[in-house]
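Hi C.,

You asked whether I'd gotten around to modeling the 98-residue construct. I have! Everything is below, sequence then structure, no commentary in between.
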Amino acid sequence: MPIDIDEFEKKSDGDIGVEEGTNADRVLSFLAENDDSAFTQSEIHDETGVKRGSVGAVLSRLEDADLVRHKGTYWAVTPDAAEAYDEGDSISKVLKVL
């Protein structure tokens, strides 16, 4: 679906697609609901249903936005994002709090 050129101009290069129901929203929601654990990309795929080939790209964009962190092959929500998240929130609500 095309967007208006004015909307295009307003978007930053780092826009991660914060709309509810996006892959980024699904991944961040899962990690925030399980903030006491870290997961591999495969485990995130299994739990969220986000396509295997998309999980890595989503995590990289979330990391660029300081919403997730990783060590080795494991990924977890950042403490600030976990604190901002309330169960049922979308990524856009978390970003507004942060």
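If it helps when you're writing up: Residues 18-88 form a domain with the Arc Repressor Mutant, subunit A fold (CATH 1.10.10.10).

Thanks,
B.
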